[in-house]
Amino acid sequence: MRMPAALLLPLFVIAAGCLDQRPTPSTEAGPASSASFTVIDLAGRSVSFKEPVERIVLVRGRDIYALGLLLGDEIEDRLVAWGPDFELYDNDSYRKFVEFHPRLADVPKLGSVYQDAVSVEKVLSLAPDLVVVDTFMVDRGYKCVERLEQAGLPVLFLDFSTDPFRNPQKSIEVLGQVLGKEDRAKEIAGFINAEIDKVFSRLDSIGEPAPSLYVEGGYQGVTTYGPTYGYGYDDEGRMTSWGAIMESLKARNVAGGVVPNMGPINPEYLLQSDPDVIVITGACWSNQPDAMHLGYYTDPGEARARLEAFTTRPGWKELTAVKAGRVYGLFHNFSIQTTEFAGTQQLAKWLYPETFADLDPEARLREFHERFMPVDFSGTWMVGLEETEE
After folding, report:
1. Are the C-beta atoms of 356 and 364 separated by less than 8 Å?
2. pLDDT band at residue 306, thresholds of 50, 70 and 90?
3. I need a surface site. Which of 160, 165, 223, 238 has the fewest CB within 10 A?
4. Degrees (nearest 5) of the Cα angle 147, 66, 281?
5. Residues 336, 241 contacting (CB under 8 angstroms)
6. From CA 57, how far away is CA 156, in angstroms rounded?
7. What is the pTM of this model?
8. Residues 119-143: pLDDT tens digits?
């Protein structure tokens, strides 16, 4: 698939629909909080908010990444509740954020949106000025999101799960409008776009043959095959998740046309497919001790040891990727966060080592932390078996 040139341009496209419509502050007498403004969110909804937007609820806890980029140290004072998924499914990052912002440990947790267990009554009791949700929650049929809207809460839809090369940046810019951080949001989006362009500006000139690729979510560990990503688009034609990244990089996804959505591949089929490159995604899933582990507190040696364990699966020692040492680990949440640029660069570098030899994704991720993140850079985010040989 050829990447549309529009993906590589500044995100002026959203300006027409999502420009800040904050009114000029009134000089008439009255409470400051009476001022209101309207934005267009990532679900295409026109949403109005009252100023100031101070009390924030994150239905998905992992959206703290986006909130932290814009608010910095203010997140401790402005976050009033969040989902439990950040602590459960990205525990290294949760620990890092709490290390830098200790009061986050005391912020109340909602029920899990993944279990459709968010209590509208609890959210109402918090009197939030902003409730952040994600479009995938509606796609998956979570009724609690509909109930939040019906309750008249100030719900803002962002989208970090589809169209991974545009929508995270759009989401940051819309959130920046709501939080009064427009300039910072544009700077962040500009950085991300420039880093993505370093990949897609070269794709058409690649002389190397497109390798076959297998990507597996490594949260179930070695003994059980985790989900792979056979799709590039959802039912509405939107690019999604790792499937979209693989397709956009022109890799031959061995799960394409075999796994219709997201799910485990047949082990025998994988062995027959004999991929050129294997990538196991990892994070710190606190409820999965045998998972592939990557993140802020992961030691490189530990990451390589966990990655190498996957090659002991029945038949894997005979795979081309294993024999060639082209087995890699990559941070799982790169596909659903603003740091997708780092995952995309690294995957491109592994797929086409000659074309992208000059890219340094880890250095760009470090720079992103230094310039924008409310926590410092540490840990291991990408690793390869070939790196074990000195």
Report:
1. no
2. very high
3. 223
4. 95
5. yes
6. 10
7. 0.86
8. 999 999 999 999 999 998 998 899 9
